[in-house]
Amino acid sequence: MRIIDLRSDTITKPSPEMRERMAQAEVGDDVFGEDPTVNSLQEKVKELTGKEAALFVSSGTQANQICINAHTRPGEEVICEYRSHIFNYEAGSPALLSGVQLHPILGNYGVLDYENVKEAIRPLDHHFAQTRLISLENTHNRWGGTIYPIKKIKEMRRLADEHNLKMHLDGARLWNASVVSGISIKEYAGYFDSVSLCFSKGLGAPIGSIAAGSAEFIDSTHYYRKAYGGGMRQAGILAAAALYAIENNLERLKDDHRRARLLAEVFNTISGFVVDLQGVQTNIVIIDTSLNKKPAPQIAAELAEKGIKVQAFSSTRLRVVTHLDINDQDIDHTIEIIKKF
Ligand code: TLP
Fold first, then answer.
1. pTM greater than 0.85
2. At the topology level of CATH, where does 16-248 sit?
């Protein structure tokens, strides 16, 4: 049976060309800072983000968490969006690793309201955990790949500056936002003290994320990467895949976006499935199944039996993600199956 896996853009496998680049990579011991391919990836990301330094790490979670740790002290507070990845999917690690508490605020399409954030910043009083950091996510995964408007980012930066707070960007899918908005990675990154970017989602590398920030900041994240067991040795093999991904797989993200839009429109015509098309801005489609008699996990299981793998995000929500290993024929086939479903 033909299997079409739309559960996540993390499932892509490295192409033969990417594997070739990995096989040819020059390597060294990256814990000593001596892996030439890792170093050139870090240089490339410095250029792309306009930041002074960058650090290659094993995962998006690790990139976010070393940044949170380096920005905060135990007992402090981090403001984030209620559906954000750092709050929902990073295994409680802000508490586990940094000893901070998250202060989640429900946004709209992942975008935080200025007044709500202002209200959430704790006053200087011994009763309160001190607010230290605001973390934003762009694109916003659980809201369905939504793009954080640059105007709203600027507004948040002003607020952070007024209160002497740092700003972190979970930019695991910032590539997708940049391709749609035409706003460069550098411009987005410019409003944040730290940014994480991921190579193993839309860009199709097998492993790897990166954190970028000031030289002093990234120097301090080195300590946390090592402490979390994230120091890698001949990691140039992985960095080569990331370099290949940046050079070859960025512009094509617009194909993923077009295909996601098509799937969203088709799902929306089928009874028992509702898609908020306003929220379909990149490669993620969230399908509301609350009008369906079956719970979302059961629908996902039945679709899987027909070869279409989607993810149940809750009892009433499915997530579909387009990616590098899905082509137009796969989309046509998926549409055929869901129309019959
Ligand atoms: N997201 C995964 C799951 O964890 C939900 C997915 O399938 O989408 N930031 C964002 C915005 C993410 O979506 C993810 C992964 C991460 C960080 C963490 O990346 P990894 O999985 O490399 O630790």
1. yes
2. Aspartate Aminotransferase; domain 2 (3.40.640)
